TrEMBL record:
Transmembrane segments: none annotated. Belongs to the EfeM/EfeO family. It is found in: Cell envelope. This is Iron transporter. Residues 1-23 form the signal peptide. It comes from Pseudomonas weihenstephanensis. InterPro entries: EfeM/EfeO_iron_uptake (IPR050894), Imelysin-like (IPR018976), Imelysin-like_EfeO/Algp7 (IPR034981), Imelysin_sf (IPR038352), Iron_uptake_EfeM/EfeO (IPR053377). Residues 35-266 form the Imelysin-like domain. It comes from the Bacteria. Keywords: Signal. One of its GO terms (cellular component) is cell envelope.
Amino acid sequence: MKKTPLALFLALGLLHTPLSAFAATAPLDLVAPISDYKIYVTEQLDELASHTQQFTDAVKKGDLATAKKLYAPTRVYYESIEPIAELFSDLDASIDSRVDDHEQGVKAADFTGFHRIEYSLFSENSTHGLDQLADGLNKDVKDLQNRVAGLTFPPEKVVGGAAALMEEVAATKVTGEEDRYSHTDLYDFQGNVDGAKKIVDLLRPYLEQNDSAFAAKVDKNFTTVNTILAKYNTADGGFETYDKVKENDRKALIGPVNTLAEDLSTLRGKLGLN
């Protein structure tokens, strides 16, 4: 195989280890997909920042109805890029931590971000006292944008992110614990699924060349999961609240999601990144 010029790796922002180490773990085929994935993440972050501004504006204006309406459609952009967002653990904690992460619960000073605001909006039905939290969320999202802009995307993290997104749905989201106050969990599911599928789509030419049967199986599993989620679509393009999804129907999600996660967990091995 022809050697890739050092300048190309540098230009694409893919050189985070010595060239010899990178070449040993990432074939040339991954250069373009990972570059394209960074573009996708950047676009999702642009949408996240724009929607977060609208969301927090409504919160600060005391417009409870609008704030509630914007909560889930805003968060979905974060959910789609979690493998990258989680590389910055401090920001992930301040933007997306759950009440369980804080010993003092909803009153904890470090319980901030989407879920803290969610608690006030949906559990207390109030926007009172949320100005500082709203400003903090905006600041953190913009900080995330800036950090990602200068980030070298680790190939193994990108490829492994497809499985991580689906594993999170199966392990912690099907229970409804993520958006326990708003019950908007199905938006999060869709964001995770879309983010995982984007990674697979970018890797598709390589996967089909090396294991077309595997690629077809993964596509079929994605279709199954998306078909299940589509059952809960609403006329306005959103989703029904998760508290309306019966326990048996929740369990019906787990099998297909687990199957997809298990298949995607082999991606790194197939691409020589283990």
